[in-house]
Write a structure and sequence with these properties.
heterodimer; A: Rossmann fold; 4-stranded antiparallel beta sheet; 36% helix; B: 414 residues; two-stranded antiparallel ribbon; 16 helices; 12 strands; 55% helix; 19% strand; elongated
Chain lengths: 278, 414
Amino acid sequence: MPEVNQSTIIQTRDLHKCYWVGSMPYPALNGIDLEIHKGEFVVLAGRSGSGKSTLLNIVGGLESADRGEARILGEDILKMGNSQRTGFRLANIGFVFQAYNLIRVLSARENVAYVCQLQGKSKQESLEIANHWLHEVEIGHLGYRRPDQLSGGQQQRVAVARALATEPKIILADEPTANLDSTTGRHLIELMQRLNQSLGTTFLISSHDPDVKQAASRLIKLSDGFIVNSWDEETKPPVSLAVTCPIRNRPFGERLRHFFKPRRKTDQQTKPGTSRHS
Amino acid sequence: MVSRLGILTYVALAVRNLIRNRRRTTITLLTMMFGIATLTLLSALNDGWLSQMKTNFILSFTGHLQIHAKGFEASQNLRDKIDDPDAISRYMDTYPEIIGWTQRIRTSGLASVSGNSTGVQIMATDPEQETWVTSMDQNVKTGVWLRPGMNKDLLLGKTVAQNLGAKLSDRVILMTQRPSGEMISEVYYLRGIIETGAPQIDRTLALISLDGAQQWLQMQQAVTDIVIRADHHDQTDTLYRLFVQQLSEQVYEIMPWQELDPMVRQWLEFSDAYGLIILFVVILLVLTEILNTMLISLHERQKELGVMIAIGTQPHRIFLMLLFEAVLLIFVGAVLGYLIALLVVMLLADSGIDLTDYANAFEFFYMDPVIHPQLTRDSALKILLATLVAALLAGIYPAWKATRLSVSQALRIQ
């Protein structure tokens, strides 16, 4: 087991992830080594397709990796079963999504109370906690409204309250301001910063919003599945598809298609004396 | 960590999800209601006419149970007779399930009127006792029923009378054999013509009084049949068991109505099977509709379900929630459909559905031209059970599919 600093809350080693679109491999993460400490307000920056959301999903146990390890609070989340991972998320991780993703049939306070009830708290206690957190995110008066009766900014505040209601050690936020106007986005970031400072909750946020980047206590820049803080984008090492996208990780249907694919000999192979690499 | 989200929370979630998609829920509910109402009505019609058929069959001639001397039903020979019917008749008052019984003599013979002759089934019965067992007295369309003490009265089936060209008061000569084998004939007077609606009876029946027949056939007190009518069809089996216990199998044969006419029994069994096929087809249609709705609903809610799993809902709870939704949808639709059918059955129970124009072909199956739908407890339970099974089947697959959801892919859905 690699050495884990007492304050290290998220640690990834050699994390690889490749997506297959048909027979085309798209490497999303190319050996990510990352350490995030307790109480940090870390922002993952990078263009679309740089691997921010994939990294966040893997750290949050929503997705598996092809290779490497992801230790959250000292436990390798990639080695957990589905049910164990769900329980681990509930106990330790809060999520804030780009599209708010509230449960549409529940009111704001019911959305927040839902996760508390999942944790085993009574309905009454859960609703009290929900009211508290809705006040914390400054929308206490909107608790009875359903998501479709709230603005985008208000919905995202409910999502933040929901993420905090279980008192998680980590909050993962995927582009939390992307669907908000700049003023609302700034208010949300200020709110998250304030909560980070007052509660000591670790925030890992993926974003390309300059306001969010500015608020970060540490900025990690991703490009094409690499962390590029230490080198320029032009000098980053080449991607080895054999390492990042091994054939065994292809979807089963693709592997079958690959297996049965007719292999035609090329002209170069049929012409005697012709080098294949010429 | 034990979740406090009880069943009620998931029921509430299921209800809210159903209400949220009003149009889809309404269309599915209407389909369900229509399916279950149709199924219940078909079942009620089936039960109604089957019950009428049974009653008509039993009341027209057969009774619920018959006791014969051993071997009589096969031989139809007067030598296979019950010599001491009173030894059996004493049981009749002890069983409250019996509401009527009579003694009969049955034998084949020949009827002649003015040079016309035809083969007949001569049946001799006690004119009063017979009215407690069958409705033959009510089927006298012309003339009168057998009069007690009038030993020369004769009633003929409608077709027999037509074949013989016999009219009321005509002299009819009946010819048959005594148990000894001696051929005998006697003159009777036609007092009535019976039309039971069952062609095999109407074209063979020659009905005379039991007292006169016993003298004519020199059988003393002997009879060939003891015919029993139960208070209800369902009591036939009970009575059968009671008589089997009391009477020697070596001396008597005890036959319930189903055995007396295998064709009717087969027809009833076929009708039951037909009812089951209808039940199966309708349930299959309903199941397909619900399955379709649930799969569309699952497709539309992939993201939401993905979010629920992402924030900590265990997949088995998602499974339960979706299953609740399917069961709830089907349950509400089934109850409403059943109530509609119940209302229609209540409206039609007295007047019935008149199929006079179509019923002639089925006459020999003792079918009434007016069908009175009838909802029975057994059918209701069968429909309820089948609906529940359909609900579970329709709910299980989408619910299971939801538990296999890729959370990261679901979250990417725009």
